Amino acid sequence: MPYKKEHLEGLLKLIDEISNTPGNEWFIETLNKMHRDRIHGDPVDSQLTSLINIHDDLKRTKYYLKNIDRKNWREAFSFYKVVSQKELRATLCADFKEMKIAEIEANWFEFVRRIILQIESIVNALIEKEDAFNIIETNPELFINNKDKFKFNLFEGDYSFFNADRTPKALKNIGFPSRMTWIRIYYGISYSFSSLNDMLFIRNKGSHRGSLTNEEEERLNAIEANWLKKNTEYISCFKAIANPLKGKL
Q1: Do 38 and 93 share a structural domain?
Q2: In the predicted model, what is the mean pLDDT of the chain?
Q3: DSSP characters for 126-154?
Q4: In 10 A of CB 120, how many CB atoms?
């Protein structure tokens, strides 16, 4: 008995929707591989049966992905529920959700990228909210350290918050380490420098593996080989920064 046209049209629409969703390429290729031999050379009825089987697979997978998506959204909303700025909260939740998806898929570059995006969003919002420029100018001695190996000067110089004419730099022109230094001093938070440094390295270098030095390649390989441990360390670092700050937004 022939299948109804509307059912087959629905099948084609669903296949097209999933195949055009970024990140699903692996899934479509896997299904193609699973069903290629069965479909190739078979009579029409057998081909349609195989297509219906694919349709069922896709529906089950789509249902599963929707459940995972909802679970990650709920976790994101719970984590950032104390953030009062609605647009910022939405941005943070979206990046948190993508971070969790990347973690499930073991996409460590995207996982780290989403962590850094959240930290940057929090840090930038607080610098603007608290008027960090005025705080530094009013208390410059708090933001200058020339005594130990962790030297910094947020008051003047290339790594400061100010241009040569003493006007405030645009946030995008203030190095991330300088912004984190201000956050650490002003709010008195503590986090793993080595883990944050690792994540910045991955974010900056992870997508350029063809142009890395031997030392950089070895560093990335070492991180990847020890990923389960690093994953835990990076999440701990992220929470050490986000947890004490999110309620101030």
Answers
A1: no
A2: 79
A3: HHHHHTHHHHHHH-GGGGEE-SSSS-EES
A4: 16
Same domain membership, residue 66 and residue 85:
no
Using DSSP, state whether 162 is helix, strand or coil. Answer: strand
181/179 Cα distance (integer angstroms): 5
* Helix (H) or strand (E) run with residue 247 in it: none
**Can you tell me whether residue 229 is helix, strand or coil?**
helix
**Which amino acid, residue 48?**
L
Structure tokens at 104: 């499930």
The C-alpha atoms of residue 129 and residue 116 are separated, in whole angstroms, by: 20
Residue 79 tokens read as: 């984590």
The two structure tokens encoding residue 66: 């929707």
**Residue range 174-183: average pLDDT?**
90
- Among 46-60, 81-95, 217-231, which stretch is predicted with the lowest mean pLDDT? 46-60
- Find the domain containing 248 and state its range: 81-249
Percent of the chain with pLDDT over 90: 22
DSSP assignments along 27-59, one per residue? HHHHHHHHHHHHHTT--HHHHHHHHHHHHHHHH
pLDDT for 201-241, tens place per residue?
888 876 555 577 888 888 888 888 888 888 899 999 999 99
